[in-house]
Amino acid sequence: MVAGCQSNVKSAGGAEDMSSFGDSADSVNDLSDASYYPTDELVQKGKVQFKERNFGKSYALFKKAVEVYPKDPQAWLGYAASADHLGRFDNADLAYAKLEKMIPNRPEFLNNRGYSYLLRGDLPRARRYFVKAYEIDPSNETTANNLELMRNSASLAERG
Q: What end-to-end distance do the CA atoms of the chain give, in Å?
């Protein structure tokens, strides 16, 4: 992903890589290689749907994961990011409040929280979170790209 929430995105290929639903074939792959932990299957499926930009599906999967396993930060990160993309900022805020207690200084949390504020148009708050994430991990491309996206958003807003 060039900018946005933390994710490892693989670009889809041609028509042979498509499922019958119009998504890439990855969205219907068997995930039987998920780790031992019970949340892994829900989280893995949620990540695949998120990568496919099926935010409603990823939201439902991550919601189930946080209901069943409320101490899993990966599930909460996916839930918050999916809620952000659906414009459900009320639910995203609840997830970020949980994450702030679990992983307050992780760059993934800080980056995603910043992106949430960017989506809402709150550029000063977004910048604060992006800068914190960047200070912790300056090699993180997603955070660097989000800072650039925010800079571009700020310059566009100033023109109006």
A: 28
Specify the long-range contacts of residues 49-57, CB closer than 8 Å, at least 24 apart. 50/5, 50/7, 50/78, 50/81, 50/82, 51/7, 51/8, 51/9, 51/10, 51/26, 52/23, 52/24, 52/26, 52/27, 53/85, 54/23, 54/27, 55/82, 55/85, 55/86, 56/86
Residues 52, 50: Cα–Cα separation, whole Å: 5
Could you tell me the two tokens for 127? 């910048």
Determine whether 119 is exposed, middle or buried from the number of CB atoms within 10 Å of its CB (0-12, 13-18, 19+). middle
Q: What is the mean pLDDT of residues 129-150?
A: 94
pTM passes above 0.85: no
The tens digit of pLDDT for each residue in 14-38 reads: 444 545 455 565 555 555 554 555 5
Closest C-alpha to 52, from 21, 91, 15, 92: 21
Burial of 76 (0-12, 13-18, 19+ CB in 10 A): buried
Q: How many residues does the chain have?
A: 160
Tokens of 160: 């109006």
